[in-house]
Amino acid sequence: MRDRNWWLLVAASGTLLVAAGAFGAHALEGHLAPRLLAAFETGVRYQAWHTLAMLGVLAWRAATPMAGQRLVLGLWALGIALFSGSLYALALSGLGRLGLITPLGGLAMIGGWLALGACVLRAGPGMGRDRERR
């Protein structure tokens, strides 16, 4: 199976985000300051969106493998780890200095979206036309 490790990473991320969302909604409510709970929820939300985006790129890659798609996946995976991971750690530990990592994760996520755009531009205007004719 092509990209097996990416699929496994996305499955793990999806599992973690559902568990983190449930944990945040049920175990942390009332135990964290509202701003820390909001930070935790932001981490879950960004992890969810980027996990779904990774699924989309993997599906696209299965149909049309292109240079740059792995870069997109890598940047988003790094972004999830740094952005969401640092927000989870910040909320659970209360250590404000962990928030210094969060912007690096955000930059990786933004870089992934820019890399996606570059990948599409590199593919040219005829991308996918042969499939549309079927």
UniProtKB/TrEMBL annotation:
Q: Which UniProt keywords apply?
A: Membrane, Transmembrane, Transmembrane helix
Q: Which InterPro entries match?
A: DUF423
Predominant cellular place of this UniProt entry's protein: membrane
One GO cellular component term noted in the UniProt record for this chain: plasma membrane
| A Pfam family assignment | DUF423
The UniProt record lists the keyword Cytoplasm: no
Name its cellular compartments: Membrane
Q: Where are the transmembrane segments?
A: 48-64, 71-92, 104-124
Q: How does it sit in the membrane?
A: Multi-pass membrane protein
Highest taxon of the lineage: Bacteria
User: What does the similarity note say?
Assistant: Belongs to the UPF0382 family.
- How is this protein named in the record? Membrane protein
Q: Write down the species.
A: Bisbaumannia pacifica
